[in-house]
Amino acid sequence: MQCSRCGRTPPPGAGPFCPYCGRYLAALTWVAEPPPDPRPPLPVRPRFRYTGPPRYREMPRWGFPALPWQEPDQDGPAPAVERARGWALVLVPLLWTLAAVAFVGFAAEVLRYVLLVLSRDDALPGGLVAFSDAAVAFGGWASVAGSVGCGILVVLWCLRIREAAAERSGTVPARSTLAVVVGWVVPGLNLAVPGGVLAEVEHLGLDRPPGARPRPSRLLLRWWAAWGVSVVLGVVVFLWSFRSGVQALADGVLLHAALDLSCAVTAVLTVGVVRHLAALVEPTRAVRREILVSLPSSS
Questions:
Q1: Tens-place pLDDT, residues 26-51
Q2: First and final CA of the chain: distance in angstroms?
Q3: 260: domain range?
Q4: pTM beyond 0.70, yes or no
């Protein structure tokens, strides 16, 4: 074997070292191994062959009950967004009904005014007059009842939707519950407070900074204007009812027609506002993506 250091070939029987330079002639291979573990190795459990599903001599008493799936009971109160969603589901159909009834009242008032104009020159059929009176009475009382009922539900929905917006943004509502209710009910205050509360809800629902000034959307501004016109017309019609005279009664018919029309428009816009704000305070859902993976065809 030739020495790798000096390149000479040692004579036979020279031993494991080179007689010329003293290098170890055998090739060395260093292998790094981890130190032995002081703990004894764990016994390897044998894997038995699968022999099929288990078989019991009697019916097991554990497992799921033989019942259809049921949602788990909630220990605490429902979140504010769920309560607001529940009030909205009740409110929206009633608002559509109020809009239809108010429009019927508007048409009845217009018919009555036309009959008043025609009655100046000639007598009117009794059946047409009776139909007009019945339509006006139905539209008027149904509109009043619907407005009161929808007004109560709108206030309750507003309290829940502002709580949902506050939970979404992690803030505390700027107004107390009593202040919001008084702002919806008291004349004068109900021209500013309802729109301000809904603007705050929209502001928080859009994830804008809580300290910034709310900027209402066009939909909310249109609703605010229609709501203000309806409130003002309601007060005017109430005060006008104390006047007497033929011309005052004729003008009162036009005022009632305008009030019914504004009530119908406000109800339709309220439906849009309820849906708009309900969509803003809903929790964001994770977007799921479907990816089509093509596999190479085996030939």
A1: 766 677 888 877 888 778 787 778 78
A2: 55
A3: 80-281
A4: no
